[in-house]
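Design job #97: recover the sequence.
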């Protein structure tokens, strides 16, 4: 499984690289705080919704949750169904917040 650091995700966003951020946390967690521009699909809905929400299988996808445990469950599934450039963000939003990177809320 491929991993990416919060620093690298922030750098990619700052450089406006063509990435997709996938937030797999609950609806309540996402509304409270998330990385701007992220695509939200709860862990339980990924299997049904990911192909429609992220149709390009060669898209660069950075998956995050709160601590990294849920994203580590989803990355292998995404690879199994044909996504080729998928990463789990190490330590999720805990690492993002520790770095003081910005979050937005709904």
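Job complete. Output follows.
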């Amino acid at each position: 499984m491929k991993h990416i650091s919060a620093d690298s995700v922030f750098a990619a966003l700052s450089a406006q690289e063509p990435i997709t951020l996938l937030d797999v946390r609950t609806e309540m967690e996402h509304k409270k705080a998330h990385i701007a521009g992220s695509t939200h699909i709860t862990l339980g809905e990924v299997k049904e919704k990911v192909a429609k929400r992220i149709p390009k299988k060669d898209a660069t996808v950075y998956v995050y949750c709160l601590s990294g445990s849920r994203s580590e469950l989803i990355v292998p599934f995404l690879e199994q169904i044909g996504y080729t450039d998928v990463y789990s963000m190490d330590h999720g939003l805990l690492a993002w917040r520790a770095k003081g990177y910005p979050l937005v809320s709904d």
